[in-house]
Amino acid sequence: MSAHTSRPETTSGLVETDQRSREIFRQIVDGYLTTGEPVGSRNIARLLPMALSPATVRNVMTDLEHAGLIYAPHTSAGRLPTERGLRFFVDAMMEVGNLTSEERARIEAQIRAGAGHRNLDQTLTEASALLSGLSRGAGVVVTTKADPRLKHIEFVRLDPARALVVLVAEDGTVENRLLALPPGLPASALTEAANFLNARILGKTLGELRGEIAAQRARMESELDALTARLVESGIATASGPSGDRHLIVRGQANLLDDLRAQEDLERIRMLFGDLETQTDVIDLLSRAEDGDGVRIFIGSENKLFSMSGSSMVAAPFRDADQRIVGVVGIIGPTRLNYARIVPMVDYTAKVVGRLLDGGR
Description:
With 361 residues, the protein is of the alpha+beta class. It has helices at 19-35, 41-47, 54-66, 83-93, 101-115, 120-135, 187-201, 206-215, 217-223, 226-240, 263-277, 279-288, 339-357, and strands spanning 3-5, 70-71, 80-81, 138-144, 150-159, 162-169, 174-180, 246-251, 295-299, 311-319, 325-334. The strands form three sheets. A six-stranded mixed sheet has the order 1-9-10-11-4-8, sandwiched between helices. Strands 5-6-7 form a three-stranded antiparallel sheet, with helices on one face. Helix 7 crosses helix 10 (226-240).
């Protein structure tokens, strides 16, 4: 398992830290990730594995501050890591933990329970809810809408100029699309078009059905009048929609409200909720995690989406049976996410989802 940065440059050269500086910096980051509170020199001196006076600790903290790795919030005597410092910690110092066998079993069982419905959306929703519960952040999944195998199609007239195309898939999902009707189309044409398609639709994807209809154009035109034939062609074209539609699932936003410490925290979460409502930007960011095999970590203002809310995202891609990357699972939360714990969690969840898409192995 690997955790990649979200940008090409490395941060490991930011500061040549000796063992003493690294330990002090680690205590500041650990305190922030655990409590969100600034850590002072006296507390650090007590926690260090080597004997250092608070004055020596303060001198090192000054060096770390000059390097841009920590800062003093307001007038506090303690220090917090900057986003640059968090990136340095994640890239150069973080020790990624391993999931326990119990945690693996829980992830596997919960996602397989969703997969029992034979519905990809329900499986992915289960994965999103699971990650949210385990991390106390918001679980997110983005995937390309599948081209499901179909069972039935129906045309429902809404008014003289419009009808609804109702597609029922073998996995039970139902999709509706609006269709503009040719002028002068008789009501019987809707029934004829549906009957013609239903005689050929069972077990096929829309792509396969379109190919078959195109190959049988002459037969279709001999069986159906011109208006009904037009309806058949425009109906399956409308139902298929644009290729590569991206679909976002978010669960557990309420978790982000559990740990607010100040008015500015509430404002930050309000901004994050606004970010999550702007689905296109979230999808674009998650899609960037498709660039590699490992887990990607995006911290705060490193990306435009979280520049105001100061949030982070940990995400990993998953693959289908043909080993094509078809989606991404992840967690969004405050920058003080427990990265060492969440990275293996997201990585394993992506692998379980991928195995289910690969026939359950």
